[in-house]
Sequence to fold (268 residues):
Amino acid sequence: MENYIIKNDNGISYLQFTKLLEYQDIVKHAISLKPIDIGSNDTFYNKQEAVYKDYEKMCTSLELDYNNIYRPYQTHTDNVKNVENEKPGIFTDEFREIDGLITNKKNKILSISVADCIDLMFFDPVKNVIANTHSGWQGTYKLISHKTVEKMVDNYGCDVKNIICCIGPSIRKCHFEVERDVSDKFYEKFKHLSNIDDIISKGKIENEKQKYNIDTILINKTVLMQMGLKEENIVDCGLCTVCNREKFHSYRVDKELAGRNTGIIALI
Ligand SMILES: [Zn+2]
Fold:
């Protein structure tokens, strides 16, 4: 049985994790499917009106108020920020160069944008804390998932044993092909992990160059389990954005023209 559902409502489609739906009286969430496109850091400004409409449709379907959206200006950092009493909005000054958001406050909709990168949604049902983190290959390398959980523990008193982490659609090992420079970088950083041979594999040879495939999802899962998250609390939808390009935006497929999916999560 799948661990997610695809919901069609209000003229749009989105993915939801069954594990988080168990708590839908306290937490709402969704990951958008095409044709929703919330724009990149660059393209957002030219399509603002359409983006706000898409956010409104998603939020209305979830019975949330889209005026409470917090969307950071993501730049592949490992910067995670607690959302307290800042004004909501898209790319506001207080949320520049931020790639992860945490809050324990109600009605603050944390929105992360992705096209191939991993959206990690966290929820602690005991302390009622949520987080939403953008972990592309750079964020994965910088261990932003580790940093997010660390902040949930240090700043909000979460117990790692209670934290649920849902892993959204992203580019998977099947399509995340890199050259020697990147694979060496990852090998150096993660060679202490016992499953390093599952994380990095030799791929095809192209123009006499050996390619490598990296499993960034497995890195995140391994790091989170080492921190003490329970295996059954790490829920991976298993979807590759390149394999499922008709449903999700993919940077590998569309390059600069790629749209963005959004994962949103809010306490109510
Ligand atoms: Zn794939």
Summary: Residues 4-170+229-267 form a domain with the CNF1/YfiH-like putative cysteine hydrolases fold (CATH 3.60.140.10). The first strand starts at residue 4 and ends at 9. Residues 172, 174-175, 240, 242-243 surround zinc ion (CB under 6 Å).
